Structure formats: C-alpha cells, structure tokens
Amino acid sequence: DAMVIQNPRYQVTQFGKPVTLSCSQTLNHNVMYWYQQKSSQAPKLLFHYYDKDFNNEADTPDNFQSRRPNTSFCFLDIRSPGLGDAAMYLCATSRDNEQYFGPGTRLTVT
Amino acid sequence: GQQLNQSPQSMFIQEGEDVSMNCTSSSIFNTWLWYKQDPGEGPVLLIALYKAGELTSNGRLTAQFGITRKDSFLNISASIPSDVGIYFCAGLFGNEKLTFGTGTRLTIIP
To answer: A57 to chain B nearest CA, in Å?
Structure first.
C-alpha cells in the first residue's frame, strides 16, 4: 500500500508557466519535506514543514513555494520554471528520525 | 550543502558476489540511514541505525553504525539482479536535516 503518494509521476511544463506538484501521505506523519534531485546526485532539501511550521532552506530559490493545507497533503509550486528546474522532485515524511520518500515527480521544462 | 563521503562511487560485480560500501563523515551523527533508489523512483529506506556499534540486518543486507559515530557500512551478501540501483547513506544529528552521501551505483554483470 502506497504511504507517500506523488502526483503526477511525470509533468511537462513550458518555460515560465507555473506548475504545481502534489504529495499526500497515509502515515499521519507530522513532518513533510520537498527535495529536488538531479541526475546522478543526492536529493537536495528545498524546504520542510514541522506540522504547520514552514522551514525554508537558505539556498532555495524564491521561485519555489510550498503549501500544506492539512497533515496529509503538501504542494510544491514553481512560479516560473526555468530549464534548470528540470529534475526529479521528491516528497518525504517522517515522525521520528526515519524519512520515507514518495516515488517522485519527474519535471520536464520545454 | 554538506555531503558525506561515500565509497565506492560505482561497483561492477557478478551475480552471487558480496558487496561492501561505506560512508565517512568529519562530524558525528546519531542516526544513520541506508536507502536504495531504482531509476525513476524515490529512495526506499533499507536500514536505520541509532546506536554506535549497532549491527542491523534486513534479509541479505547488513549495516553497521561505526563506533566513532562518523561512519557506517552496508554489506549485501549473495547479490541478485534486483540489487542493481544506487545506494545512498544519510546521516542525521538531532533535529538537523538529513545529510546524504554521494551514492554508490551497483551494476551486476551477467
């Protein structure tokens, strides 16, 4: 049974056209994360929520925003995608120290 | 951001061989996590370690939390084709974000 669900799995957007990626979880974990992963690299943390408290990484571009309307759902908004934003976007959740990742959304920018 | 030194970067082995990889850090962690990532998918948690010296197994996988708290090891015994993928270590200290290793790409030669 899927515990961290990401939709869509593949997303194509045009340069500069806003896009939203979604994540949901059935684990009832209080912490949710968004990571960006480029080819052959480790995941890079963009931001995370501890309950409703939002924590932005210092080097996350302003182009990236997030919303967490409730415990189960979290969204990643890219306001004006550039070619350099093409990547795999991973959502993860944790309660204690173990992080569980979703299957990811592969974003292509044309 | 900070990354752990993970080695080897890649491995080419024959089916049935044992595999060893490790991660080292200049700073201590109080949790070590090992993940496997298949192409186009999110990382899957394999083993979590919480105590210095701890040795934990998950089927054919065995991982150890180094006694200095600055390193961790993962062994895979009797490799099979589905072991192919990228393995990441990740360290955690307190409530800080996960620090990922650079990854080990495992390829099995027919």
So the answer is: 10
